[in-house]
């Protein structure tokens, strides 16, 4: 434990991803994030959640060097837990605001996509789903969340080209909702969170569910098959070789 | 009767909402609008319809003070009639152009969303679905029409934040198709209506139906449950109290 | 045969539509395009495909004067083959880039919509689905591809108004991905094709399929009925008269 810290400021909980320099995701960290969201859910005093990263990264995604030590069964179990965490945040009954204080890449980008609103820092930070550049596909949950946010055309471009986007470019595509200066992002996250947290919880939950339920159903329907496909490709010769290179040079 | 007036100018019918200062919707007015659309439908001489408001409003939505006098059963009946009117205009076989000459809010915004094209006046007029600000959710028909027009991301922002948008901001989101000066809106509505009315009725009907049928089916599938949910929240203690405040101060 | 030419440059195949001045589509040409895509598919040495037109047109769509000589059964057979070609390219396992070197209209526009990326030349070239201007509707495959690319609102505008768009306007709607100068389009097509062809074939195929399969299923589900509707309207008195005028003056 200890890869995630939580603070509560006047009814707004802040969950901070904090693991190494890049907040890379492994199984215990995914479990820990999941536990925090579960713990906060029934607490009526907490009106909303901010999800952010410690240091200069939001999250660089899966911890590839560590994951290369997982057996295929362990890796599938990890993917299932991660997919289930995404689904939980995606339908979370309270507002969740992503404060993208730095790179949000691959699995880190997916975590950001689960939130109700994304504010990203301008400058060197990049967001993207670059799985295809190291030979990995995407599981259906990621595809569904992405295309429901940015449409099929932008979604294809993001996934099939695997490019990284600045805050401004991401905003133009709808991948993030706002681009903020480094000096102003914390204030802006507060303002937006406050706007969300003012709403009555019951209509908020109902409306969010009416919009997101069809997407969430497609996420879970296609989930298991596409997780299997993802794992098969991950352990294929070609992709495994590229992942080893990440391990050595990354 | 008498809350709606209809004029026919060379095959283009104009339906004008005209009730009080803000053209607020009650049950007789919804029935009257419905009747006019039904009457015009079989008339081959009428090529299209313009829907507008009298005075300086399009429609401010439901007449809350009057609706607070309805029993819950009467309110549910009203919601069903309104939802059914929206579905009728949404799949109307002739073109329907919304001339948003002033505020189009909540139920008034939903009426605008049913049309084939929205032209909104610049300046003080605002459009939005602000139900959440007085503690009400949205029924599925409204969610489906909205997200099919502006996508899920903008749809969430509109519904979960409940903000009001100027013509220019609404156009940037896709909530309206054009923003026009007060002096030019009538002329522009004529031009666009003429473009729509030139098309052959049969392919127009078929193509409109191919695009809108899946949305209309989701509107009717989720309709009854979400209308019940809407009514339950409307009569909940918290929302009822906020509605009383609208009644007193609004 | 001979309406399509194919060249291979270092693993990138270029399929050039080449029939008369406007590359208008008839049954043998549709069969020929289909055959080329089928031939290339199993060839692992070919990483991707560019689809372009010879001369100053991409394709002006169906060869109306020739199609007016088809019996209704022959016309329905032609529509089925064209629809099936669209579905094949839409789910093609290799990247397909549309180089829109000139007008891409009606059936020519639909061919462009099947591709993974569209680069269109600036200037006089226009893209659009103008079927409604000569009294024809659209079959469901075209509607589904279009709305998945540009959303329902832009899709309705394109289909119900039947307007023609410059490269810049088409890009603003999402109908094409880039607008390029005449002098620079060939180079830009190469650059983008190279970006797509670098990706590993297996994750490319899986991700493309995850995004496009639901659209493709709707294309085939609604296909036969909407093809019948299309043919019925095509042979209706009103539309037939308009098509004769195209034959005489076009």
Describe this structure in words.
3 copies of one chain form a homotrimer. With 250 residues, the first copy, chain A, is of the alpha/beta class. Chain A has 10 helices and 9 strands. In chain A, helix 1 (27-40) runs parallel beside helix 3 and helix 3 crosses helix 9. The longest helix of chain A is centred in the middle third of the chain and has 22 residues, at 140-161. Chain A starts with a strand and ends with a helix. The interface between A and C is medium-sized, with 27 and 23 residues.
**Biggest interface between chains:** A-B, 23 and 27 residues
Average pLDDT rating of chain A: 94
- Level-2 CATH architecture of chain A: Alpha-Beta Complex
What general form of chain A does the structure show?
A: globular
Per CATH, the superfamily of chain A is 2-enoyl-CoA Hydratase, Chain A, domain 1
From the alpha carbons, calculate the radius of gyration of chain A and give it in angstroms: 17 Å
- How many domains would you count in the coordinates of chain A? 1
Largest sheet of chain A: 6 strands, mixed
Order of helices and strands of chain A: EEHEEHHEEHEEHHEHHHH
Distance between the termini of chain A: 25 Å
Which strand order spans the largest sheet of chain A, edge to edge or round the barrel? 1-2-3-5-7-9
Text of the CATH class of chain A: Alpha Beta
- By DSSP, the count of extended strands of chain A is 9
Low-confidence stretches of chain A: none
SS strand fraction of chain A: 15-25%
């Amino acid at each position: 434990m200890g890869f995630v810290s939580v603070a509560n400021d006047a009814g707004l909980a802040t969950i901070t991803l904090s693991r190494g320099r890049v907040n890379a995701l492994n199984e215990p960290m995914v479990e820990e994030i999941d536990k925090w969201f579960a713990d906060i859910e029934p607490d009526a005093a907490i009106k909303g959640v901010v999800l952010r990263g410690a240091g200069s990264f939001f999250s660089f995604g899966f911890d590839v060097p560590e994951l290369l030590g997982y057996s295929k069964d362990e890796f599938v179990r990890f993917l299932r837990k991660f997919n289930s965490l995404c689904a939980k945040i995606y339908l979370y009954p309270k507002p969740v605001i992503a404060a993208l204080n730095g790179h949000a890449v691959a699995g880190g980008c997916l975590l950001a996509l689960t939130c109700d609103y994304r504010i990203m820092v301008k400058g060197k930070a990049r967001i993207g789903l670059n799985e295809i550049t190291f030979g990995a596909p995407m599981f259906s949950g990621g595809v569904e969340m992405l295309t429901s946010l940015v449409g099929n055309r932008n979604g294809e471009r993001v996934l099939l080209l695997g490019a990284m986007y600045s805050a401004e470019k991401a905003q133009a595509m709808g991948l993030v909702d706002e681009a903020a200066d480094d000096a102003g992002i914390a204030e802006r996250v507060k303002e937006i969170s406050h706007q969300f947290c003012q709403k009555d919880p019951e209509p908020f939950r109902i409306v969010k569910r009416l919009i997101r339920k069809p997407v969430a159903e497609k996420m879970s329907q296609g989930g298991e098959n596409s997780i299997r496909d993802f794992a098969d490709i991950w352990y294929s010769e070609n992709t495994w070789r590229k992942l080893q290179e990440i391990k050595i040079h990354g």
